[in-house]
Batch of 4 targets.
Target 1
Amino acid sequence: MPLINGCAMLDKGTRALGLDRELQEGVLFLTYSTLISAGRAGKSRMDQVLEWLAGGSSNAAAGGAAAAANIAAAARAWDGLLVFDECHKAKNFTPGKEAQSTKVASAVIEIQALLPNARVLYCSATGVSEVANMAYMARMGLWGPASPFVDFSAFLESMKKRGVSFMELLAMEMKAAGRYVARGLSFRQAEFLEVEAPLVPDKVAQYDAAVALWQQLRVQLELALQLAGNSNRDVWKMFWAAQQRFFKLLCIGLKLDTVIAEAKAALASGMCVVIGLQSTGEAAADAMGLEPGPLPGFVSPCKELLVRFIQQHFPIHHPQAPEAAAMGLPPEAIPACQQMRQQLLAQVTTLDLPPNFLDQLIDELGGPASVAEMTGRKGRVVREQRRVGHIIRCTGRVVYELRAKPDSSEMDSLNGRWGWYLVYVSVSQGKTEQRMTADVMDGVMLGRWTGICSCSCRGLAAADCKADRTGVLCWEHSVVCSGQVVWSGS
């Protein structure tokens, strides 16, 4: 069976009298982005796909209404197979509000309507977290003719009233009817534990000092706004947002010693290690404008976030009239505010704050040569390593290095190349399709220790912070690390 790789291949095979013979039949692969894009001669890719399914673009050679009617009739009669891989990408569709829906969702629903006799297969490894995300599954027979619900809106309203338990019953019914096939993973040899990271006195002192500085910043920011006569409430929005991000990063950093100790114990017992995070902290490095080369030490994203907020949002000038700004006059400085800002910045430099948690994990667990980083960040801070023969030696010098060449999508480690590693650090930005363990087909049997340092506030993203278990016959030891910090106060 010929494989046709995208509509561009159809473009290359189109001649004056139609498609090449070898392209008139086969399996056509295309992305969702291609499906919603424009093609040649003012036609959409959707029209091009329908013409191909109707028997090739030669049917449309004559043009006009007659050719369009022939293509539509052939499309209605077509009974081939439509496979929507990663079909959850079409979830954002709102019936009656098509303008607010995504183009991908609208295109998926439209092509199913234009091919009423086609067989349809929906494939996805992402769970349906909300019934509203099922609008594109028009062929499941859950609504429409010969079903209890007239349309999707009626189905959605009924499901919302009955809750999650009824969704489970719906899944059971779909399985019994053969419409829903899902693999069930055995929990044999799987362990799930929660480990609490104790707060030693040094960590308590770090946290208390940070809290005291944020309290002082709030008081002095309020005073500075009064002195500057600034009534802009957006400053406080930025204040609370920065504070939330700061303590989120700090709390992750306070747990790392426990996570690293547990990971090293798992390695010593002969297991491979997977560590899951929810962010990389790369914004701090971007804000500093780091360039490849040596650094005095590891970068603390907490410290850089706080410094950036004070520099950008702490007022030190009176608001300037538009006329004065148009004339190029400098704004009037407020000496008291300038002094307060300088004192705050000086106090920030004295804080003992943890470094970037991702850089610390890689450094403590053996460096880039031993740890496979599965993230999208473009650079990282590491200890310089040099290869001497078959031995990798650490020079001890801290450097900022790029993980991809400039203007390139190439990533090291598991982002683009496979290799044998015992430690994997993954940042959940949606699911990864790569297996972070040895497969039974590889002839290697290693248990896997999976540690979750931080979970997303969104249930779906938290559920996606996991590793694939396909083909794995070794044991699984999953650990969620929690801290002892209790949020209190206003």
Target 2
Amino acid sequence: SSGINAEYGIPDSSYFSEDVTPTKCQYTNELQARDLKSEDKLLKFPINNEDVVWEESHIPFTDHIFLNKYLVLFPPVTHRFMETVISALQNNPDLTADKKKQIIWSYLNYFNYHSELLEEDEEEILKI
């Protein structure tokens, strides 16, 4: 009852899990490749970069890296923090330009909503 046939040392059928995943074989790889070809998800070699239309091909590169212009919209107390955020966004190639702007606007909305807390912090900073 330990899952192994005691006489022969052979595992019983209950020894193996019921949901064993089948091993990959050449046939399943060919089926996957055929499905990818039918969905037009396979790259054709040699790769021609001009054939690939990216999501942001119409967005200029400057919209991705020159985000410091939004820093003037923020309260002066938050400038050091926002410089760090904007620097991280400028260096992130995985986000779209719209997503980067959305993140900046969410911080701006947050700081505008909590402006009374920022004024208190500014007074404490000036005392020091």
Target 3
Amino acid sequence: VEAVVSTQSTGKRKEYFQNTPTIVTDALYRKFTSRGQSSTGTLRTSISDALRTKMVNHIAALTLIIDRFRVNYEELSRDTGIKPRILAETYRSMGCSCKKVKKPDGSVRAVAVLACPVKLPPLVFRKGGQKRH
């Protein structure tokens, strides 16, 4: 099984996922990284821009579900190291509105909100009963 990435191959993986079961870390590496050989012939894992975008999209979707469709993305940015601008773009692409919200203590935070259920615009019919696209 060549697709399985062993968590024993680099010290960094051990450092990042100290308390995470091996089966979980292997699944994460399979889903969000690609493997290849370096010029010295050793196996290396890397993440492309497409896989990074896929990972950010998954993080955004999970946080929306966990936080009941209202996420403080500046806090998420500090936790993950992903730029707030990139998170805001990702949430907007998922249908969220991103805005600054003032808390009762006077501080301001950046929040992405997904209105549920999503309301689609009504269909407009032409004369003769045909739908307009």
Target 4
Amino acid sequence: MLESVAGKSIAFNVVFLSLGWLVADFALQSQHKLTGFSFPSACNEKSSCSKEIFQKSAEVDQEIRKIEKSFYRTYPYRPSHVDEDVTRRWRLLTFKLNYEMINYEPRIGLNGMWRREVEQIDQFARNIISKSAEVVNKDVKLVDLFRHDDPYQGVQYIINYKNKDATGDVISTTVELERNFVAGKPLLKQVVASGDGDVINIIMPLSKVTDRFTRFLDRLESAIIRKNPRGFRFIFVIFQPHHRDDDDVVDDDVTIVTVKQFHARNPGVDIRYKRIADREFNRAFGLDEGVKLVEKDEIMLFLDVDLTITEEWFKRIRLNVIRNKRVLFPVIFSQFDPEIGEKSSQLYPPLKEELKVGDGVSKNTGFWLHYAYGIVALYKSDYIKAGGFKTDIEGWGGEDVDFFKKVVALDDVEVMTSVDRDIMHIYHGRTCDVTLAADQYMMCIGAWSETLASQLEAGLLYNDDENRK
């Protein structure tokens, strides 16, 4: 066996050396035909010429390696279709939890490789903060970490911290890192320390006052305005389909009265409204009209009334939305019908505890609304660059997906879509107009059915004899 292996090894060496000798002989005889390859004058024998060729080959190989490296895809991956974005969304991590739809779980405990990665990136970011002149107070606390896989560039991180300044005000600090596939340590992109930042223009189209709208105003006052009213502007676009432009009684409209009362309670806040008379409600048209009331190139947030919001979320918007660079499409957690949850928990007692405990994020209380793009935060200049909303869409739905496609198509703007624990869609009943276009009607029915219950809750009620009678 050993003799056979040794024989094969000797034969291989003989063939290899013979091939090199033949190449040298061919090159020596054909050098007058070769262009761009210089032979030294001393190369007049096969042995010396073979050595020179090998040296020249090594130089050529190094040049080829440089060319190959220049073709590495170090530029960001650009999705060519909306569907591609679903597979490359940002992951939200904390020291304790991993927020994502994993095996029907909207969040799981942080363990294994995810815990190690969070600890390593946190340590790396803290080391940067300790040397950064941007951050005065180095005693920071990790709030959360956003992680994004780019198939061309590598892994991107946005690490959010909070600390306090000399006056005791909470300051948010963000560290952005990038770990390329061809590099070892993460590379620093930027460090941003900010307390308030740019003004956020909250734009909301309305058709009429409902309990949902008044409850939303109450949440705004308690969560945002009473704590820190600076840096916000509220723009309401009010549709009045039964009034003409020259109608003198529009001020008696209950929606406008409600907005004025909201302004009277909060005189220090910039609150504006515009009425759209003699026209049925159109969300895209209303948002576009609201954009026209934003005078400067500031952050705009397109918001709905059925949302819970926090001050932390607005700080994250200011830090992560970047002019001419990044647009934010948050993925919100949508609640299931609480009445169905209550009925199903009577059939399965352990479900009662799950519906009561925690912050409401679990697989039996709701789901991440991955297919909705209606909540958007971006600068006005980026809105104009994308081409704005398609304002001639009538009825329910479609305008958000159309606008998302436009933003994805921008070459110089990054789309950030990520689940966000600080914004939740509160369940409300809905009806789907049978006069809608077929595709809109199917979208409406699909959205309505998905918000009703979890698989466990629906299964419990379906298999219950009382409910099947």
